Amino acid sequence: MQRKTFNRGVAALAAAAALGIGGAARAQQQVEIPFFYPVAVGGPIAKIIDGFANDFMKANPGIKVTPIYAGTYQETIVKALTAHKAGTPPVFSVLLSTDMFTLIDEDAIVPVDGFVKTAEDKAWMGSFYKAFMLNSQAGGKTWGVPFQRSTVVMYWNKEAFKEAGLDPNKAPQTWAELKSMATKLTKKDSSGKVTQYGVQIPSSGFPYWLFQTLTTTNDAILANEAGTQVKFDDPKVVEALQYWVDLGKAGVHPPGVVEWGTTPKDFFEKKAAIIYTTTGNLTNIRSNAKFDFGVGMIPANKRKGSPTGGGNFYIFKKASPAQQEAAFKFIKWVTAPERAAQWSIDTGYVAVSPAAYETPPLKKYGSEFPPALVARDQLPHSVAELSTHDNQRVTKALNDGLQAALTGAKPPAQAMQDAQREADRLLRSYK
Q1: Cα angle vertex 337, ends 285, 34, to 5°?
Q2: Which family does it belong to (predicted)?
């Protein structure tokens, strides 16, 4: 009897051990894919990303997705590259589309093309807006997948337009109209101090990006496709900077350097009647503006246009093949039309594919709130955001030049010649 009990005990232990091993094997099979996401911890966007990760894991129990909120875009790329050099990079990350050349030069990422195997994969790969692919492909390969993408748009306060005797439903269409309307929209108190500027274009954070709204509409392209050459001293570029400087000199635009972060708040507080900012601020402005506002394309000079902006997904080279495949599966899932549509509704970013705009939720949202479609409608006129090799230092050279001109430290032509000289020095080895 004792022996039977002993044998049964051994059998039970063996079965438990087998189950334990099986359980451990199953646990080991779960692929972990941490990814860096450029936002400070908390806030509505982190909640949306967490929701996407949880929904994906429910549908794919073999994959554990861990979003790591890494701060601003600049902080996120520094953290991602530091981790890459230390041999512990994230499996994938959302980083600026303009970081592409930097990531290639650091040998930090793999092309996405290697994961595209089925006809369905190929159809997905070909489904994105062409304007967004300009900053996602180089050397015949696709390095980034568009996700958190945007363009710069113009927002205007319809009440301020009415007060100034302007048609609240007619935004400025040209540079000349912008200056003329901004003059009428500028308000001063009895001491002559400006209480409301006609127009505000931020020049901190991403000065080069906002400047591209002026260079693009003046028919100038700042860099070549290979990212090895820039044209900061092109007369059309200098003319665009002169226009921006002249708005300040005319007193219709705030003087000096204008903060990127506070520009939406200045709009809410009626300190600026027209602002330029990302379409990614649309939901924020819709939630916080206590007045009727309009959203329009950037006013044209020689042509219409705006740079695209925002972030792509990149897959890191040092992740294991299983992790890379799992990351690709998540990226494909989260950029599918229905989720791209929901993301656009929840944030104001542009949905990355035409198919997303055909989904019932986004169709309904667009018909009820037409401003949500302005950025999409601007895409056929959009150009790539400035991106080169050694991108951070090249854009810093341009940013420094822009701020020197806007603060009056240098005339526009001199500021752009100096920026060109520095960019040429930085890019010499890449030609």
Answers
A1: 80
A2: Belongs to the bacterial solute-binding protein 1 family.
Reported as a single tens digit per residue, the pLDDT across 114-124 is 999 999 999 99
Which alpha helices (H) appear in 99-252, and where do they start and end?
A: 100-105, 119-125, 130-133, 158-163, 175-185, 207-217, 235-249
Domain that holds residue 353: 30-150+309-381
Name 167's Cβ contacts closer than 8 Å, sequence gap at least 6.
Answer: 161
> pLDDT category, 43, cuts 50, 70, 90?
low
Is the pLDDT score of 18 beyond 50? Answer: no
CA angle 101, 107, 112 (to 5 degrees): 75
Longest dimension (CA), the chain: 105
CATH code, domain with 108: 3.40.190.10
Q: For residue 9, name the pLDDT band (cuts at 50, 70, 90).
A: very low
C-alpha–C-alpha distance, residues 285 and 155, integer Å:
9
CA distance 399 to 153: 20
Q: Which residues of 199-224 are buried (b: 16+ CB within 10 A; e: fewer)?
A: bbbbbebbbbbbbbbbbbbbebbbbe
Q: Does residue 22 surpass a pLDDT of 50?
A: no
Binned at pLDDT 50, 70 and 90, residue 14 comes out as: very low
- The secondary structure of 267-287 as a DSSP string is HHTTSEEEEEEEGGGHHHHHH
DSSP β-ladder status, 92-96 and 293-296: unpaired
Predicted pLDDT of residue 39: 86
CB-CB contact of 200 with 263 (8 Å): yes
Q: Flag whether 303 is in a domain.
A: yes
Domain contains 401: no
Coil, strand or helix at 215? helix
Q: Do 135 and 171 share a domain, yes or no?
A: no
> Mind listing the pLDDT tens digit for each residue in 296-346?
999 999 999 999 999 999 999 999 999 999 999 999 999 999 999 999 999
Residue 156 and residue 138 in contact, taking contact as beta carbons nearer than 8 Å = no
Distance of alpha carbon 33 from alpha carbon 50, whole angstroms: 14
Q: Would you state the structure tokens that stand for residue 270, as one six-digit string?
A: 């009626």
- Other CB atoms within 10 Å distance of the CB of residue 286: 14
42 domain residue, yes or no: yes
> Amino acid letter at 29?
Q
Place of tokens 């994969």: 121
Closest C-alpha among 127, 98, 64, 53 to residue 314: 98
For residues 84 and 199, state if they share a domain: no
In DSSP terms, 275 is beta-bridged to 155, 200
